[in-house]
Amino acid sequence: MGKLEGKRIAVLVADLYQELEFWYPYLRLLEEGAEAVAVGPERKIYRSKLGYPAKAALAAEEAKVEEFDAVVIPGGYAPDYLRRKHELVEFVRGMTEAGKVVAAICHGGWMLCSARVVEGKRVTSFLAIRDDLENAGATWVDEPVVRDGNIITSRVPDDLPAFLREIISALSEGP
After folding, report:
1. pLDDT below 50 — which residues of the chain?
2. Measuring CA to CA, which residue among 74, 88, 92 is closest to residue 22?
3. Annotated active-site residue in 28, 107, 121, 155
4. What is the per-residue burial (b if ≥16 Cβ within 10 Å, else e) of 99-111?
């Protein structure tokens, strides 16, 4: 039995997602016994930056905060498409407000900006969106993984092991 048995985690996906930042968390969470669910703007197949397919099992309208324990937001250019879907922005905001684990890596921080959940928070991301996070009221730091309350952020694919250790740790803690 894995550490995350009984946990349900949304992993967001849209076109031009970063392959490792989607698949590494998705598979690692399954390995720990969680139910990982790919959630996209629509129920369809999305293509990564290199053309690798990932099928969204749920559309944005079907993702309900009360049915998930966490959300993981991979990077690439997908977050720019994800944040155009109001229901996904509201889902991320709702997950944050409910105190559930909200994890973003690389450009995934764009969703946190759009959901308006980083004001006063300490975060990290890919360097290119530092200004966006700071303009949204966050304190940006250059560290492999940062946890501030229920928000976990990371920078790049090389940081994935630390990112997933922190996500698994947060989800393994008591209620």
Report:
1. none
2. 74
3. 107
4. ebbbbbbbbbbbb
Is 107 one of the catalytic residues?
Answer: yes
Task: Please state, for a pLDDT cut of 70, what percent of the chain lies above it.
Answer: 98
- Give the tens place of pLDDT for each residue, 96-128: 999 999 999 999 999 999 999 999 999 999 999
Find residue 145's DSSP bridge partners.
154
Q: Which fold has domain 8-170?
A: Rossmann fold (3.40.50)
Q: What's 3's DSSP letter?
A: T
Q: What is the DSSP string of 14-80?
A: -TTB-HHHHHHHHHHHHHTT-EEEEEESSSSEEEBTT--EEE-SEEGGG--GGG-SEEEE--BTHHH
Residue 156, pLDDT score: 98
What is the amino acid identity at position 25?
Answer: P
Nearest to 105 by CA among 140, 138, 79: 79
Neighbours of 80 (CB within 10 A): 15
How many C-beta atoms lie closer than 10 Å to residue 70's C-beta? 24
